[in-house]
Design a protein that fits this description.
Blueprint: H1 78-103, H2 117-126, E1 132-134, H3 140-145, H4 150-158, H5 191-204, E2 211-216, H6 223-234, E3 239-245, E4 248-249, E5 252-253, H7 267-271, E6 274-279, H8 283-298, E7 304-309, H9 330-333, H10 339-349, H11 355-377, H12 403-418
Parallel strand pairs: 1-2, 2-3, 3-7, 6-7
Antiparallel strand pairs: 4-5
The protein binds thiamine diphosphate (TPP) and magnesium ion.
Length: 421
């Protein structure tokens, strides 16, 4: 090693450090939360470089009194808002039940979306039912909003006889082509280039369907994220690129993906893509932003990148213990509140809902989830025998099974027979 030059300061690296660790008091008073209704809503035909400030602001509709205000208010009727509330509450009830099922040993793994329900549910409501979604593992609200059977979701989680994926995917990594829900992959951010490619194909065929994709803020550090943005901007692909900034990537805080330097929505600017930063716990803002981005995509204005500023209120997965690395006070100190409570308060403030109806709804949803679980468990749970024929492990990859797989499958069956199993 050559000696450093004495007349220059030694170089050093900046290593990000989260602000609060276990035992610290969480204080988010310096997080800038602009008043609801304060940001402008450009025309959907406006050039992407004419509203850069929206990548640094925060689109918000619901104010502290529960009123919907400003140019982004999507002016939904009460029925649509009640459906939105119900789908978010159902997603939470489903998460609660499946989390417990994992703790009871009925499945090996589960991931909740607590606190982030608006990001999947409200966005799905703003899309057409045949638009194609390329989610990460934390947007189960898409399937729930589109009415996918809860029993089938649970069958997948239990990897049982009713699992349409025959136990070959990790629990919660659903795939539902007929519900416009692309197979979830454990490899972070692969869904981004896939969504852009699908959107490009849709346009190349002269179709009218658009694509939407979601990834976590941590996943934006993947190369796939950046190559997807390049393709999206070059070809003006009809795609909505969602970043769910829930502050954490397992135990790594958002600073490791670049959050100390700028916003995630600002990634859009370097690519010449329309960028919006949205209050992800405000279901009406998520709806409005998605509707705006969908209109841009449908009218060939190109892609929109939306950062949903939110907070992962619980652990990363059932394999995680967040008390080991973050302050226990963070979820409560988080300034944007809870998405379900905020929409509920809004509906009550406008006289379209009340506490008694909320309670009845929660009871009804809990019963619905419980009944679905009972049904799914008839098809088997973890550790209670083999739920799929052994040879299925070789099937489903190739349209016609190649000779070497046939050979391996036959060998396995012969060995099992010889061993008397
Ligand atoms: C390519 C790749 N690298 C690492 C992992 C391990 N891993 C799984 S989830 C995760 C954190 C992702 O965080 P984020 O993108 O913020 O999404 P969130 O879990 O917060 O929704 C990591 C590192 C992986 N699955 N794939
Ligand atoms: Mg995250």
């Amino acid at each position: 090693m050559t000696a450093p030059r004495a007349n220059l300061p030694p170089l050093s690296l900046h290593v990000p450090e989260p602000r609060f660790r276990p035992g610290d008091e969480a204080d988010f008073s310096d997080v800038v939360v602009p008043p609801a209704g304060s940001g402008r809503r450009p025309d959907t035909a406006a050039a992407a470089d004419s509203f850069h400030e929206l990548a640094y602001g925060l689109v918000r509709v619901l104010d502290d009194m529960g009123h919907a205000v400003g140019p982004w208010d999507p002016r939904l009727d009460a029925d649509a808002k009640r459906k939105m509330l119900r789908s978010m509450a159902l997603t939470r009830a489903f998460d609660e039940r499946m989390f417990r099922a994992q703790r009871q040993g009925k499945t090996s793994f589960y991931m909740k979306s607590t606190g982030e329900e608006a990001v999947s549910v409200a966005a799905t409501m703003a899309l057409a039912s045949d638009d194609m979604c390329f989610p990460s593992y934390r947007q189960q609200g898409i399937l729930i909003t589109r009415g996918y059977p809860l029993v089938t979701m649970m069958n997948q989680i239990y990897s049982n006889r009713g699992d349409p994926l025959q136990g070959r995917q990790l629990p919660i990594m659903y795939s539902a082509k007929d519900h416009g829900f692309f197979s979830i992959s454990g490899n972070l951010a692969t869904q981004y280039p896939q969504a852009v490619g699908w959107a490009m194909a849709s346009a190349a065929k002269g179709d009218s369907r658009i694509a939407a994709t979601w990834c976590g803020e941590g996943s934006t550090a993947e190369g796939d994220f950046h190559s997807a943005l390049t393709f999206a901007t070059v070809y003006k692909a009809p795609v909505i690129l969602n970043i769910v900034n829930n502050q954490w990537a397992i135990s790594s805080f958002s600073g490791f993906a670049g959050a100390e330097a700028t916003t995630f929505a600002a990634r859009a600017i370097g690519y010449g893509i329309a960028g919006l930063r949205v209050d992800g716990n405000d279901a009406l803002a998520v709806y409005a932003a998605t509707q705006w981005a969908a209109e841009r995509a449908r009218t060939n204005q190109g892609p929109t990148l939306i950062e949903h500023f939110t907070y992962r209120a619980e652990g990363h997965s059932t394999s995680d213990d967040p008390t080991a690395y973050r302050s226990a006070g963070e979820p409560n100190a988080w300034p944007l509140g809870d998405p379900i409570r905020r929409l509920k308060d809004h509906l009550i403030a406008t006289g379209e809902w009340d506490d008694a109806r909320q309670q009845a709804m929660d009871l009804d949803l809990a019963e619905q989830v419980k009944a679905a679980q009972k049904e799914a468990e008839k098809n088997g749970i973890l550790g209670h025998g083999m739920h799929q024929p052994f040879e299925t492990m070789f099937e489903g990859v190739f349209e016609h099974m190649p000779w070497h797989l046939k050979e391996q499958s036959e060998q396995m069956m012969a060995e099992r027979k010889a061993a008397g199993i």
